[in-house]
Amino acid sequence: FQRLFLLRVMRQDRIGAALSQFVIDNLGQDFVEQPPFDMESSLEESTAITPFFFVLFPGVDPTPTIEALGRKLGKTEANGQLLNISMGQGQEKIALNALNKMAKEGGWIMLQNIHLMQAWLKDLERALEVIEEFVHDDFRCFLTSEPPGVMQGKLWDLIPEPILQRCIKVADEAPSDLKSNLRRAYSKFSQENIDACLKPREFKATLFALCFFHSLISGRIKFGAQGWSKKYPFNDGDLTICGQVLKNYLNNAENLGTEVPWPDLRYIFGEIMYGGHITDPWDRRVNNTYLAVLVTPELLVGGALAPGFKSPDAAKLEYSHYVKYIEERFPPEVPQMFGLHPNAEIGFLTNQGISIFKTIADITGGGGGGGSADISASTPLITSYLTALPTNLDMIDIRGRLKEEDYTPFIIVSLQEADRVNALLDQIRSSLLELELGISGALNVTEKMEMLSADLQSNKVNALWAEKAYPSLKALSAWFADLVLRHEQVVEWTAQLKLLKSIWISGLFNSMSFLTSNMQVAARSNSLPLDYMTNRCRFYNTRDLAEITGVPPQGVNVHGLFLEGAGWEDGKGEDEGYITESKMKDLHPTMPVCNIFAVHIDEMDWTAMYHCPVFSTSLRGATFIFVANVRMDPDDNEYRWVLAGAAMLTQAD
What we know:
globular; DHC; 44% helix; Dynein_C_barrel; Dynein heavy chain; single chain
């Protein structure tokens, strides 16, 4: 246990694994591995006066599980023995009357989303006490509620404690580890599902791959934006419906003129069932790539599902054998099983370690600070930032030096950047001076001043500053230093009033506008339609700006790009470099200077190129800028880099 203290201090990214091993050594494997939730055995533990309380997590809906068990025990909506009420305005009396009715008759009742009815929950608490006097032994009550949000505190702040105390609490959250996810996914099917298919060999092999696919996309979220840019509610219903679709297609395969309609299955699974949740096009590409490598004819001949994990021989195995195969043959989980590099888990594991100890502090009441902060403590910081704050650019002087013909797309972008820099500097300067006056007593201290003071003392970018700024995940000190560098670039650009030999693309407020202007210049000079232009990248073999002698003959030079999810191998001589495997612990290698020039889309050649998305920050998603063509080894497959989450960033956080 003492060794855990050292690990906590020295390698926070490894504390999760160490704690798991500590629990296994002292309590056993059962306390680490999560078995699939069994509603039937849970029901046996309950009584008529102990309701079930389901905590709702993204992608988890207990309704199908309860309905399936109800059908088995003769409790269905058709015969009036199961009632499902979604709580909302106007449902209060209906729910209480139904609760009393079902309690007398021995039926089942589900009250969904009770967290929406907090004022009514006292009535529910009283009703659950009253029915104890006349309740039928077969009566069961099922309550569901979302967990409280970040600002709502703990669950007992949302739901009255007496209700929670009388309930059996069920938190059937999808597990984070791959083996538990696969075990859970496969448990949604049975031998009866296999027997119902006319092509059992094909069904078993594809169903197992489908369950593995479900496990991968459910587990990938833990890798942050490199896994998925958003949290998608993939759920058990998606999986079971896909299983049904698979059975129907195989049973009708002869009518479709094929043994197994692989492309049809991949399209329905990827674009409709699971893809229906996905809103980001780059996440959709990852989803479809998983299906492209998993749902293939190779499944029928023992093809690999992941490194060290093959699809078993479907002709020889039944349902129970697959369950045993998962338990005995599943390899230790590593990021490579998701298609990711080991570097991908460093950030995830560090955040996991931070989260574990934050949760411990919250539960034990430790780590809390009392009292309000002293705003006068921010005085030295105000002085420091005001001293270092650059002066505004003189836009009257800059525009006065321009003739009408000088307003080229690049110059217009430089003026837009200068205006944005000035607006941000004005916001910072005015708010700091205002806070300074508030501390001195010249102004009344407002809530905005208090928030700014707190942000300064906690090294956090103020929300009002962020509104005028650019996407960034940096702490305030690094963010401010970054702002000074951005100001210096705009000063140099507007002083010369011509394109610089290389633009620091990370230092632009609107990188997309700059790249659009690059296409405008090319379209005008070649008399081509702008709508049919696209940017093409060519990376030099240098990162030293001193080696760049001047403006390129075609397009623009940019620097300040970083690669995530992959590494970069510089070329030799005139040969361009190419994307390659990451080096251990090198999370964001710096890319060489890049020449970006615009071409007509018909001239764009993607041979041996990876469609690499470029984002402003590692949060990805809405910070997307453009798609860069990144050279690959000719023997490489683009699928490899899609699953690795390879992308370029303009800020390495």
